[in-house]
């Protein structure tokens, strides 16, 4: 009965234009996926509906204040990896909603346990390093706006099919207030919350999110919930335990990153998300544990693997290829797609986001090319192209569907923004 009440809007038209398709979950707010019908055509969005008269430790006034704060915060944020707020409205029945962008993909806790009844398993080290570096870029932007997220955990991080990371659910994010001793309300998930916030002796600040990031790394690398800061401190620890106690395959360098991020003393953690991103990047680039994504089930495998550890599909790489950047009088540049590389990103470099694509076209087109515009992906059957942009990627003059891999053949022409590329196969 409770589940029916939670999902009661599924199939209904809200505010005359939001057709509710699925109930996604939620606690202080009900979260739905809906299709909105407006120009230029139907698209998926997320609808959040404020809940009231529930026993969650908050008053209706506190819950409404958090709901309104989240919408106002999302209006301020303009980061490509944070859902965009669309509108806030009340329907004729007095129910409060706001709409925001829908992120296609899976939350990281889904990767830990892909289906009900399946035990959680650790994720590949290289995959976690890449995801956490992307998260640091988002946090660096938020902290620059004095926004503290406060609820970092796998359930609040989304990964798209091409491994782009998004931060969702800003329901308890807040603006840092200099001079304030502690937060007005204690909110968060205890497994990812640092000691000083559990004690409520300090207000949340950037190193609060650093602890949550380290605790999230611990969960992903071990497949187990991190112990609470109360528990580890009571046992005499200065941080979370070593991930190598549970997963000995993790490198000592990566373990040290988790240890530093989860120090109980705030001053012993990374000083900023930018500093942590630099360490993660250095570790990832020096690591030999390169990630190979299975083309069938998308599970992560080591670069030396011949078969997928999850589904058994072959991972043997196809032949080489080159990509030519074309000008009016011929090829301006020819790039060999390395045989040991399984994804080749095309886009525009963004130092503020720590993003450096394999092919940076910002010098040729800074207006229409997205930071992550398109990716060439190597599969056992050959190369594919995936559009990641809002402006579109064209294959032989036809715009391809976003996030849907398209097979590449020798001689195919790609158009990204105002730049033309030609794909060729080599032996």
Describe this structure in words.
The chain has 427 residues and is an alpha+beta fold. It has three domains: 2-101, Phosphorylase Kinase, domain 1, CATH 3.30.200; 106-286, Transferase(Phosphotransferase), domain 1 (Orthogonal Bundle), CATH 1.10.510.10; 321-425, Tumour Suppressor Smad4 (Sandwich). Helices cover 23% and strands 26% of the residues. It is built from nine helices and 24 strands. It has helices at 2-6, 60-76, 108-112, 125-144, 195-198, 206-222, 229-234, 252-261, 273-286; strands at 13-14, 18-25, 29-36, 43-50, 85-90, 96-101, 106-107, 147-148, 157-159, 165-167, 174-175, 291-293, 300-302, 321-327, 330-337, 343-347, 359-360, 372-379, 382-387, 393-395, 398-399, 406-407, 413-416, 419-425. A six-stranded antiparallel beta sheet has the order 1-2-3-4-6-5, covered by helices on one side. The chain has a six-stranded antiparallel beta sheet with strand order 15-14-24-23-20-21, with no helix packed on it. Strand 12 and strand 13 (300-302) form a beta hairpin. Helix 4 (125-144) runs antiparallel to helix 9 (273-286). The longest helix is centred in the first third of the chain and has 20 residues, at 125-144. The model is unreliable at 1-7 and 176-186 (pLDDT under 50).
């Amino acid at each position: 009965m409770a589940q029916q009440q939670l999902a009661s809007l599924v199939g209904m038209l809200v505010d005359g234009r939001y057709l509710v398709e699925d109930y996604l979950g939620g606690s202080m707010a009900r979260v739905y996926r809906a299709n909105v019908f407006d120009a230029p055509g139907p698209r998926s969005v997320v609808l959040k509906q404020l809940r009231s008269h529930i026993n969650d430790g908050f008053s209706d006034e506190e819950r409404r204040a958090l709901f309104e704060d989240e919408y106002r915060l999302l209006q301020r944020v303009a980061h490509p990896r944070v859902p965009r707020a669309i509108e806030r409205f009340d329907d004729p029945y007095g129910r409060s909603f706001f709409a925001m962008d829908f992120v296609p993909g899976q939350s990281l806790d889904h990767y830990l346990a892909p289906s009900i009844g399946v035990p959680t398993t650790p994720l590949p080290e290289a995959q976690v390093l890449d995801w956490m570096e992307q998260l640091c870029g988002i946090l660096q932007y938020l902290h620059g706006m004095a926004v503290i997220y406060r609820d970092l955990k796998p359930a609040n991080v989304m990964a798209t099919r091409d491994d782009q990371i998004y931060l969702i659910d800003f329901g308890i994010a807040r603006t840092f207030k200099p001079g304030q001793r502690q937060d007005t309300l204690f909110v968060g998930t205890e497994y990812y919350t640092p000691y000083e916030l559990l004690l409520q002796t300090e207000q949340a600040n950037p190193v609060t999110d650093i602890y949550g990031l380290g605790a999230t790394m611990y969960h992903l690398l071990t497949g187990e919930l991190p112990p609470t800061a109360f528990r580890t401190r009571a046992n005499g620890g200065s941080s979370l335990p070593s991930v190598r106690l549970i997963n000995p395959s993790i490198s000592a360098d990566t373990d040290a990153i988790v240890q530093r991020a989860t120090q109980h003393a705030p001053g012993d953690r990374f000083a900023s998300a930018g500093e942590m991103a630099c360490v993660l990047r250095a570790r990832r680039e020096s690591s030999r544990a390169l990630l190979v994504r299975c083309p069938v089930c998308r599970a992560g495998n080591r670069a030396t693997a011949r078969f997928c550890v999850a589904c058994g599909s072959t991972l043997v790489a196809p032949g080489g290829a080159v990509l030519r950047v074309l000008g009016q009088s011929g090829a301006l540049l020819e790039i060999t797609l390395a045989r040991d590389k399984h994804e080749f990103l095309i886009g525009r470099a963004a130092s503020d986001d720590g993003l450096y694509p394999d092919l940076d076209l910002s010098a040729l087109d800074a207006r229409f090319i997205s930071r992550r515009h398109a990716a060439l992906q190597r599969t056992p059957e050959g190369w594919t192209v995936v559009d990641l942009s809002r402006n579109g990627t064209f294959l032989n003059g036809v715009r391809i569907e976003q996030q849907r891999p398209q097979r590449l053949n020798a001689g195919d022409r790609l158009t990204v923004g105002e730049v033309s590329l030609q794909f060729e196969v080599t032996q």
